[in-house]
Inverse folding.
């Protein structure tokens, strides 16, 4: 019990719980839209001077879920990827290249067919890793967006894959990482 005149200091255990609580709340808010530190404090209903807010933001940044933009706002990072080793990266990159092969190899004479743009596994990657492009796809299917806009976004992805960036997200054909391999990696 606190004596009269003593300053209240939360225990380290309580601080840790608060940090995780705020991290979850911050994640929820940033998934809606990017926010500055002061906007986050206001959205969470806490003081801007609350140091636990800073620790929670820092935790999310270190884990790769949040990044600070040039305008000072924090944003949620969708579809982040961690590769256990170079082999895992190469497997994912080859898988990505196969899904986007027709776009990577295309010439001006042979544009990708509509069936290429509707590839089930590519669409799974878009839905889980690129929701903004998947939204364009949905609007295209509904007939509200031109074919060329969706095709342009897919071609941008193909260029990224061509230059060594595997697709974000996942699909039914994605290589699976075994739990055993994760445990081995952690022990090394």
């Amino acid at each position: 019990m606190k004596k009269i005149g003593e300053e209240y200091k939360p225990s380290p255990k309580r601080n840790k719980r608060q940090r995780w609580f705020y991290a979850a709340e911050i994640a929820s808010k940033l998934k809606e839209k990017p926010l500055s530190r002061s906007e986050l404090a206001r959205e969470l209903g806490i003081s801007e001077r609350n140091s636990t807010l800073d620790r929670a933001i820092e935790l999310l940044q270190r884990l790769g879920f949040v990044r600070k933009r040039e305008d000072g706002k924090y944003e949620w990072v969708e579809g982040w990827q961690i590769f256990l080793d170079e082999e895992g990266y190469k497997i994912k990159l080859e898988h990505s290249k196969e899904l986007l092969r027709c776009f990577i190899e295309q010439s001006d004479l042979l544009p990708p067919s509509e069936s290429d743009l509707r590839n089930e596994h590519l669409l799974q990657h878009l839905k889980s890793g690129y929701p903004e492009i998947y939204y364009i796809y949905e609007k295209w299917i509904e007939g509200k967006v031109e074919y060329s806009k969706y095709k342009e976004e897919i071609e941008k992805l193909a260029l990224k894959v061509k230059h060594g960036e595997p697709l974000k997200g996942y699909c039914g054909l994605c290589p699976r990482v075994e739990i055993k391999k994760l445990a081995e990696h952690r022990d090394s």
